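seq:
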Amino acid sequence: LQCVRRLPDMLVLRWCLADPEGAEITACDVQICGSLSWANAVFEGGASPTRTEGKHWQATVASLVGDTAYNIRVRGCSAAGEGEWSPLTCRTSDRPPEAAEIQCVERRATSLRVEWQLPDPEGAEVQSCELWLAGTVSWQPLATEPGSEPRRAQGNTWEVAIHGLTAATNYDLRLCGRNVVGTGPLAKQDMRTSELPPEATSFDCLERTPHELTLEWRVEDPQGAEVNNCELQVAGSLSWASAAFSSGPNAEPRRCQGDLWRASIAGLLGNTTYEVRVRGRNDGGDGSWCQRTFRTSELPQEPSAMACIQRLPDGLHIEWLLHEP
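struct:
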């Protein structure tokens, strides 16, 4: 006696029962143990157990409850009477199991693409998955656009893209599978969106003139959210103000190569010290400021080694040293 197929509300049973000599088996009784006693099973379509061939019999027990274990017994009947009961314990199709191998396969500043494994229970494949995100007060069902709900990618692999998130934020994710039997257990996973740009490094002046400063710095690209712009500000007498850039090509902040950026600030005064700060920006927002002090070209220094190298009746030939600012 064995269960050869499990369904949400049915069990397909098969068994072998040899005919005694001179008393062929004409029918089989199938009973299910209830809360108080045994009761005759209900069969699909009202059909009784049937002999498939030789000594092999089969029956489809119906009107069962999913994800439930049943104690079943079978006996043969002939003109001589009823035989001994043969017991079997089996269960209908299960609810989906807990999702496994939940992982973020792609993270952005405002979105996450998540994959997980969810095998189909025998006879009741997983039809959908439900997700919740931890809110400020309680868990909130994941709101998705039509057509962007969790879907089966292939086999037991499911995926979903979660949008509308905040950069550099931890998220508590819960998910479960659903089939015709019901909802499976919740699986939990912590994930984080892409970071904001980090603070710039190697912030230096490449070239200075009386009215311009050519600056260079480095900003690493966070995973999944590369730096797409940089902001420069110059300190004024009362507050910070956006820097003005020269009119030449490539004067505004630009990526030179890799994580190296450069810009040329214009409209400055000669021989003046300026507080300048820079920060990176990506799809998630603005990073931290990096602040440095720079100075435009200085006034000429006092001459040194001044000497008269030739005297004439009507003039003097004078020579001195003067370092370039």
